[in-house]
Amino acid sequence: MLRGTVTASVWATKRIDGIPGGAFLEVELDGGGRMVAFDVLGTGMGERVLVVQGSVAASWFTARQVPPPIDALIIGSIDDPQ
Amino acid sequence: MLRGTVTASVWATKRIDGIPGGAFLEVELDGGGRMVAFDVLGTGMGERVLVVQGSVAASWFTARQVPPPIDALIIGSIDDPQ
Amino acid sequence: MLRGTVTASVWATKRIDGIPGGAFLEVELDGGGRMVAFDVLGTGMGERVLVVQGSVAASWFTARQVPPPIDALIIGSIDDPQ
Amino acid sequence: MLRGTVTASVWATKRIDGIPGGAFLEVELDGGGRMVAFDVLGTGMGERVLVVQGSVAASWFTARQVPPPIDALIIGSIDDPQ
Amino acid sequence: MLRGTVTASVWATKRIDGIPGGAFLEVELDGGGRMVAFDVLGTGMGERVLVVQGSVAASWFTARQVPPPIDALIIGSIDDPQ
C-alpha cells in the first residue's frame, strides 16, 4: 500500500461504462509523485490516506460480476499520530 | 489511475489475435513518460485522459470469454477545470 | 519479493470493509523507498522481512471468498546471517 | 503497452515446465531500459513492437488451462509512419 | 521478464503458510537493482536467470488450489552466448 494526501478531485464526465459510485481523487504520494485513486469513503481534501493498487482495487467491488475498471482504491484514512 | 494527454495514434497491422475494436493511442503522462493505451471512446488528439493499467484494463471487455491482451485502457476524458 | 525493515505501525480507523485481522506496517525497503505492507505474523519493529506485492498478497487469504483489498503482504522474517 | 525495438534473442534451455512455443526476445524500450518479452509472431531483429505486461500476457494463451509463466508478450509490430 | 544473476540465498524460517518447496534467491538485475525470486530449478550462485513477476509466478504452481504467496519466479537459466 502507498500513503499520500488527497489534493484534488478529478472529474471525467465522458467515461466508459462500469465505473461504480464514488469519486476520483488526486493523491500526492509520500516520497513524491501523484496518482488518481478511487474513493468510496467520502474522503476530503487534505486527508491522509492508504491506497491499494492493481486488480485487488477492482475485485473489492464484490457486488459486481465484472470488476470495474479501477486500479487504485483508497482503503482508509491514516490516523493522526498521537 | 494515471493522467495524461493523447499525443498520437499507434498502428500495428501485424498483430496477435484477440485485440478488440478500438485504437492504440500514445499518451504523454503527467509527471513525464509516455505509454500506449487502448481507447474505445474515440478520444482525440490533445484530449486529457484517465488511464487504468494492468489486468483490469483487460477484464473490462466483459463480452469476451478470454480477456484481450491489453494492459492499459483509457477510462475517461478529464473535464476541463471550470 | 522485496526485502526491508519494519519501521512503524500505520493505523487507519476509518477504512473500507473487508480488511482482515492483522496490522499495517511501514517497511523501509532495501535499496530505498518506503511502503506499507500487511502483516499477519506479529512482526515487530526492526525486523527484517520479505514482502510480496500485487494480487497474490490478497489471494493468500483463502478463507475469504472475496480477496481483501491488500496489495502487499509480509510473507516471512529474514533469518540473520550466521 | 510499451513500445520498443527487438535487439536480441534470449535462450534458456534449462527452464521450468509450461512455457509455450515461441521465442524470448530482448526489447530495448523507448525511453530507456531493456526487458525480455515473449514472441509468437516471428518478430525479427530491429522490428518495432508493442509489448503488453503482466497477467494478461499469460491469459492470452487460451488453449492452456494453466496460464504459462510469461509476464510480457509482443502483441504486434508497429507500422512505419507514412 | 527480467534478466539477472543469482547472488545469494535468502532464508526465512518464520513464514506464513503456503510457500511451496523451493528456495528464495537474491537476484542482481541487469540494469541495476536487486530482488528476491523463488526458485524451483536448483539454480546456483552466479547463474544467469530469467525472472517472471506478478501473479503468473504464483499461478504456475498448478497443483495448488490456492496460488502461493510468491510474486517472482525464476523460469529458466539463460544459455551462455556461443
The chain-level structural class of chain A is mainly beta
Assign the CATH superfamily of chain A. Answer: EutN/Ccml
CATH topology of chain A: OB fold (Dihydrolipoamide Acetyltransferase, E2P)
Assembly classification:
homopentamer
Q: Specify the biggest β-sheet of chain A.
A: 5 strands, antiparallel
CATH domain class name of chain A: Mainly Beta
Please report the distance between the alpha carbons of the first and last residues of chain A: 22 Å
Organism (chains A, B, C, D, E): Microtetraspora fusca
Protein name (chains A, B, C, D, E): EutN/CcmL family microcompartment protein
Subcellular location (chains A, B, C, D, E): Carboxysome
Pfam families (chains A, B, C, D, E): EutN_CcmL (PF03319)
Structure description:
Five copies of one chain form a homopentamer. With 82 residues, chain A is mostly beta strands. The first copy, chain A, has one domain: OB fold (Dihydrolipoamide Acetyltransferase, E2P) (Beta Barrel), CATH 2.40.50. The first copy, chain A, has one helix and six strands, in the order βββββαβ. In chain A, strands 4-3-1-5-6 form a five-stranded antiparallel β-sheet. In chain A, β3 and β4 form a beta hairpin. The model of chain A has no long low-confidence stretch (mean pLDDT 95). Chains A, B, C, D, E: Keywords: Bacterial microcompartment, Carboxysome. Chains A, B, C, D, E: Its main location: other. Chains A, B, C, D, E: It is found in: Carboxysome. Chains A, B, C, D, E: It holds the Pfam family EutN_CcmL. Chains A, B, C, D, E: This is EutN/CcmL family microcompartment protein.
